[in-house]
Amino acid sequence: QVQLVESGGGSVQAGGSLRLSCAASGSTYSVTCMGWFRQAPGKEREWVGLIAATDGRTYYRDSVKGRFTVSQDNAKNTLDLQMNNLKPEDTAMYYCAARVFFAWLGYCPLSERNYNSWGQGTQVAVSS
Q1: Dihedral of CA 58/64/69/72: which sign?
Q2: Is 23 exposed, middle or buried (0-12, 13-18, 19+ CB in 10 A)?
Q3: Dihedrals phi, psi of 35, to nearest 5 degrees
Q4: Each residue's pLDDT tens digit in the chain (128 positions)?
C-alpha cells in the first residue's frame, strides 16, 4: 500500500508559477514510476509528467515540455511538479500517481491504468 497526498494547488494568472508536491508513505520501496496526471472538467484524464524511481528518467507530454519539471526526493519520499509559464489550458485537477510493482519494465508506461496508487488531487486554476 502506498498513500499519496498532493498539495500546492491554487489560482494564478497566466504566466505565473506553481509548485505541486506529493508526499508518499507506505510501501514506497515497491514504487517503480511516479508521476502527475491532470483532468479538466468534461475532459479525459491525461498524463503530464512522469519519473522513473529506478534511474530518474523523466517523461513530459508535448504541451508542457520546457515549462513543467518533475522531480523526486527519495530520501523524503516526495514528488514535485514545478510549473512555470502557466497557461489557462493548464487549469485542471492535478493528481499524483504511483506504479507500485516489484518488477521494473524498463520504462514508465503512459496510460493511467498502469498506475495503482493515487492521491486525492489538488486544483490548479490559471486565469487569463
Answers
A1: negative
A2: middle
A3: -170, 180
A4: 899 999 999 999 999 999 999 999 998 889 999 999 999 999 999 999 999 998 999 999 999 999 999 999 878 889 999 999 999 999 999 999 999 998 899 999 999 999 999 999 999 999 99
> Which residue has 529506478 as its cell numbers?
54
- Residue 7 CB coordination number (10 Å): 13
Q: Hey, which bits of 27-119 come out as E strands?
A: 31-39, 46-52, 58-60, 68-73, 78-83, 92-100, 117-118
CA distances from 11 to 56, 72, 111 (A): 29, 24, 28
Helix/strand/coil percentages in the chain, nearest 5: 10, 50, 40
Q: How far apart are CA 64 and CA 101, in angstroms?
A: 27
Cell of 14: 497566466
| Residue 115 in grid coordinates | 498506475
